[in-house]
Amino acid sequence: MTAGRPPVPAYIQKIAPYVPGKPIETLEREYGITDSIKLASNENPLGPSPKALAAIARDVDKLHRYPDGAGHTLVHALAEHLNVLPEQILPGNGSDDLLGMLARVLLQPGDEVVIPDPSFLMYTIVAQSAGAVTVNVPLKDLAMDLPAMLSCVGPRTRMVFICQPNNPTATVVGRAAFENFLSALPEQVVVVVDEAYFEFVRDTDCACGLHYLDATPSVVTLRTFSKAYGLAGLRVGYGVMPAQLVQWLQRVRMPFNVNSLAQSGAVAALSDTAFLARTLDVVHGGLDFFYRELTRRGIPYFPSQANFFLIDVGRPADTVFEALLHQGVIVRSMRAYGFPTYIRVSVGLPEENQRFLNALDKVLAEGK
């Protein structure tokens, strides 16, 4: 290292690390509580797919072998499920892995990336890690403002992120709005549509990235097995994109990036249609239950197209978050996202949803 020269580039030093939600065990230890429920990280309240668990148990004695580096079985299962070509699919160690590959392949220092704000924090991190400049465009009424995002696209813009549904607001972009946006973009821009929560969408007008696989400019769709399929701990996701772009990303993909049990579990989960249907019933039923109960209480909330939603608690969100923690209920404060009085709540099992409401009633009553 040359004397006086910083050990890492300045654009890396400026990155604010992503801070994930803490595990239940950590929070219970820190707060001295037991029997807590976690409604903070948008996980599947039913746990993993039973078929995935069976497949993992079947293959666990093969851990001394490296996984299939090409993910052949998983890729072909996804291709059949999605009605796309296998060469248009690239698996990743969670969809975050694909975000990193896209940044390394498509971005250079000084390029610009247009990002809705607030949205998933990793978009900013992966862009900055490549030395790109992020252009953050505020949401409008909690939804992505596509006209405003389009107005920020310039000659140095190389990538645009669309989080569909958006995290943390759970809003979506309609087909007509997305198509108008896409048709106005320069050809050099790649549109990354992150559909981590797409399985939960009930809005029939919601744009689906897969429908624009052959569009110009290029559209990349990212999905994951972490949410609806209940495999967050295995870290397996995938991208669907033009075959040429898959070939470019293959050049920077780490070898064996998706472990063998993740591949086995994902293939089995994809076939477990009964589990997915039950998951959607639990989530949609939970959302409707929350809507009714919060309306009855006169507490403002925001309808969701995901498995989480926002509540305006009318007081500092951090205070409510801490008070709920002491009752063993873990949610997420949205202060850091620019919503100082909002909390984000993931849908749980019916008894967990009721316990959250009971705890919220107590916290809000004590705060009056």
UniProtKB/TrEMBL annotation:
Cofactor(s), names only, from the UniProt record: pyridoxal 5'-phosphate
GO molecular function: histidinol-phosphate transaminase activity; pyridoxal phosphate binding
PROSITE patterns, per the entry: AA_TRANSFER_CLASS_2
N6-(pyridoxal phosphate)lysine: modified positions: K227
Domain Aminotransferase class I/classII large as annotated: residue spans: 35-360
Pathway: Amino-acid biosynthesis; L-histidine biosynthesis; L-histidine from 5-phospho-alpha-D-ribose 1-diphosphate: step 7/9
Pfam families linked to this entry: Aminotran_1_2
A single GO BP: L-histidine biosynthetic process
EC number: 2.6.1.9
Catalysed reaction, written as an equation: L-histidinol phosphate + 2-oxoglutarate = 3-(imidazol-4-yl)-2-oxopropyl phosphate + L-glutamate
Keywords: Amino-acid biosynthesis, Aminotransferase, Histidine biosynthesis, Pyridoxal phosphate, Transferase
InterPro entries, sorted: Aminotrans_II_pyridoxalP_BS (IPR001917), Aminotransferase_I/II_large (IPR004839), HisP_aminotrans (IPR005861), HistidinolP_aminotransfase (IPR050106), PyrdxlP-dep_Trfase (IPR015424), PyrdxlP-dep_Trfase_major (IPR015421), PyrdxlP-dep_Trfase_small (IPR015422)
PANTHER family assigned to the protein according to its UniProt record, in alphabetical order: HISTIDINOL-PHOSPHATE AMINOTRANSFERASE (PTHR43643:SF3), HISTIDINOL-PHOSPHATE AMINOTRANSFERASE 2 (PTHR43643)
Family: Belongs to the class-II pyridoxal-phosphate-dependent aminotransferase family. Histidinol-phosphate aminotransferase subfamily.
Description of how the protein assembles with itself and partners: Homodimer.
Protein name as annotated: Histidinol-phosphate aminotransferase
Species name: Desulfatitalea alkaliphila
